[in-house]
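This part of the workshop introduces the protein records we will be handling. Each record describes a single protein and holds just a pair of labelled lines. Instead of coordinates, the fold is spelled out as a row of discrete tokens. To make this concrete, we reproduce a full record directly below:
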Amino acid sequence: MMQTAPVEAQRSDASARSPQEMSESRAGPAARAWGLSRSTPEEIGEDAARSRIISPSLLLPAEVVLFELKPSLWYVLFTSLPIAAAGAAVVALALAVKQLESVRQLGMVIGMWVIGLRVAVALLQWLGRTYVLTDRRILIQSGVFEVKVEALGLERIENTFVAQAVVQRLLGIGTIFFRTGDVGHGSLSWEHVRRPREVHGHVVAQIERWKHTLERGGEG
């Protein structure tokens, strides 16, 4: 069952500071809480590759990375499941064949290869997948040999919620959805994230800080 949590405005004394100061003040505690990398504009240089997962070239000028996270390793299982289940069915059918030993062995080999290859591909997908929250955008970096980046400005997000199936809830993972008002063009999701409601809370807080910053800039 999906539980929705519309973005609600939050105000704090920190809103009186500049966007960069606010982002830097939040980056440190958030990074420590999640055990993830952080960055500031001053750190984007020769050592940047060691301090974060994503490339600094993907960031906008003066954009600050608040945190980066990988999907849970359960991502490998869940993304492999449909095809791996088909492979397991082939193995089961092969085991049921009693008369033709050659057919039985061939079926088992094919089924095991299907399972193994799908799990290997899913592991590569997991290795290449990173979710990023900056002070002004959410990003998804995917791919190992050919990197693809999807980004969504925080000011465009109108609704965000956590979805957890029963199994995901038992495993402590979930998927976070981000939606805008653009029909067909305004949706991203962070799949199979650990402690999704805590991560969701951090993202919602930053969405409201950034929107408030833009409002203050417009008034000025």
Remarks:
- Confidence is low (pLDDT under 50) at residues 1-51.
- The helical segments are 19-34, 48-51, 74-96, 101-127, 166-171, 196-219.
- The beta strands are 2-6, 65-69, 130-134, 137-142, 148-153, 159-163, 173-179, 187-194.
- The chain has two domains: 2-71+134-219, 76-123.
